[in-house]
Amino acid sequence: MSAVIIKSAGKDEAAFISKIGQQSYNETYPAILTQEQIDFMLNKNYTVDAIQALMDSGQDFYLLYEDAVPKGFVAVQNKEQSILRIEKLYLLAEDKGKGYGTMFLNFVADLAKSRDLKLLELNVNRGNPAYHFYLKQSFVVTEVVDIPYYGYILDDYVMQKDLTL
């Protein structure tokens, strides 16, 4: 049986996060975004330097390891007094369906509760199949947004999960 753990990630693990982010992005988004936009988003947000800058700006990163091999990551940040925002959550395609996404969400929910926060919040692209996963995990759509982003439009759902229920 595999040993699966979630651990806090520091700047030394930014290369693992970058690799997982880039691979996951290239697996998920070709059916949704243009290659030009994918390349832009990867260069803007998933280089080692970009990830380390996000860590410096207050995002907390956590890696999920299966038998000491990094398989996915989540990044969170306190948004306001009652909300923990999931900024990123990615798993490698071959590791989807193993329950790791649910493990991450349970981990993040426990983290939020330990910080006395009442809601989890995230954005998901309206064409991303992960939307259906979040619905199954008791997230609800609170807003439909079109966010201008460096000449692109991010067409997202804002979703929240009430941790007091």
Task: Name the descriptors.
165 residues; 7 strands; alpha+beta; globular
**Terminal residue distance:** 33 Å
Q: Hey, roughly how much beta strand do the residues contain?
A: 35-45%
- Total strands: the figure is 7
Detail the poorly predicted runs. none
Order of helices and strands: EHHHEEEHEHEE
Radius of gyration: 15 Å
- Structural class category: alpha+beta
Q: Summarize the amount of helix as a percent range.
A: 25-40%
Instruction: Assign an overall shape.
Output: globular
- Count, helices: 5
Across the major sheet, the strand order is 1-2-3-4-5-7-6
Mean pLDDT: 96
Largest sheet entry:
7 strands, mixed
Provide a compact summary of the structure:
The chain is an alpha+beta fold and about 160 residues long. It is about 35% helix and about 40% strand. The chain has a seven-stranded mixed β-sheet, sandwiched between helices.
Descriptive notes:
This protein is an alpha+beta fold and 165 residues long. Helix content is 35%, strand content 38%. The chain has 5 helices and 7 strands, in the order βαααβββαβαββ. It has helices spanning 14-28, 35-45, 48-56, 100-114, 130-136; strands at residues 4-9, 60-66, 69-80, 83-91, 119-125, 140-149, 152-162. The chain has a 7-stranded mixed β-sheet, sandwiched between helices. A hairpin with a 2-residue loop joins strand 6 and strand 7 (152-162). The model has no long low-confidence stretch (mean pLDDT 96).
List strands and helices in order, with pairings.
Blueprint: E1 4-9, H1 14-28, H2 35-45, H3 48-56, E2 60-66, E3 69-80, E4 83-91, H4 100-114, E5 119-125, H5 130-136, E6 140-149, E7 152-162
Parallel strand pairs: 4-5
Antiparallel strand pairs: 1-2, 2-3, 3-4, 5-7, 6-7
Helix pairs in contact: 1-3
